[in-house]
Amino acid sequence: MRATSIGAVLTGALVLSASAVTAPAAYAAETGVVIKKVSVNGGKPIVLGTSQTESFTISVTASDDSGISSKLAFFQIKREVGDNYWSYHGTPTCTASSATTSTCKLAFKLDSGWGVPRNTLAGPWKVVVQLQSKDGDLYNNGGDITHPVLRRGKLSVDAGPEPVTKGKSLKVTGKLTRANWDKRTYAGYTNQPVKLQFRKAGTSTYTTIKTVKTNSTGNLSTTVTASADGYWRWSFAGTSTTSTVNATGDYVDVRGQPGTGRSARAGRTGRCRVASR
């Protein structure tokens, strides 16, 4: 049985970025309608967790000598894998910027009845754009534009002991999880390469120290040598089905070795930092 969602709810336009995908010019030549810009979620992947509070926007700027009509306007983003099918779709609101050009927008908010799709549907989704000119020319791209819809990843980090003596071992642990759309929960993401990164206190850039793979439950663990005060974090580059994510840096106070003359500072209580959405 197919699983499908028809719960696309128009909720108003969201902020858009300059990132865009241009539709093939062939359609403009055939219909007279020229698609100038297609922007899905501001050019960023659509990342869905397990809640029904997610939202994104499709925005299309189009022109025609006669202008763009609101009749038959239709936007859709969909994916089908085997027997699983999911679709978010609806009628956009078109606003004219001139006699020939309009920008049409449709904002989607996941509803409580349908929410997120199935795990197997993570990946590239087809984006369908249909618009009509005022003189009757109909444009439909046939879904030949694709856009990634990904499962949300989360990362935690904990570095200790805190404080630690310079030159001593520092253990850094954490866990990589991702949204399980089928069960609407988060579960460990196994056998994935995750970068351990360090940012020295007083600087703004993280440097990769090593790469560690998650174990059978998504956990991470490694040991490094403490050399300077700073922040430790895990960084996951993402996959074709799962979003990129960085853990919030965990600060570690590194004290001078005995006899170096450096005054000790108050240590920080150990804590686990988890990346925010």
Notes on the structure:
By secondary structure, the chain is mainly beta. Helix content is 3%, strand content 50%. The chain contains one helix and 22 strands. Strands 2, 4, 5, 8, 9 and 10 form a six-stranded mixed beta sheet that branches. Strands 11, 13, 14, 17 and 22 form a five-stranded antiparallel beta sheet that branches. Strands 15, 16, 18, 19 and 20 form a five-stranded antiparallel beta sheet that branches. The relative contact order is 0.16. Mean pLDDT is 86; it is low at 1-29 and 261-270.
Keywords:
3% helix, 6-stranded mixed beta sheet, 5-stranded antiparallel beta sheet, mainly beta, 277 residues, 50% strand
Question: What's the arrangement of secondary structure elements?
Answer:
Blueprint lengths: L24 H7 L2 E7 L5 E3 L6 E9 L4 E14 L2 E7 L2 E4 L4 E9 L13 E11 L4 E3 L4 E7 L1 E8 L3 E2 L3 E12 L4 E4 L4 E8 L6 E7 L5 E7 L4 E7 L8 E2 L3 E3 L1 E2 L17 E2 L3
Parallel strand pairs: 2-10, 12-21
Antiparallel strand pairs: 1-3, 3-7, 4-5, 4-8, 6-7, 8-9, 8-10, 11-13, 11-22, 13-14, 13-17, 15-16, 15-18, 18-19, 18-20
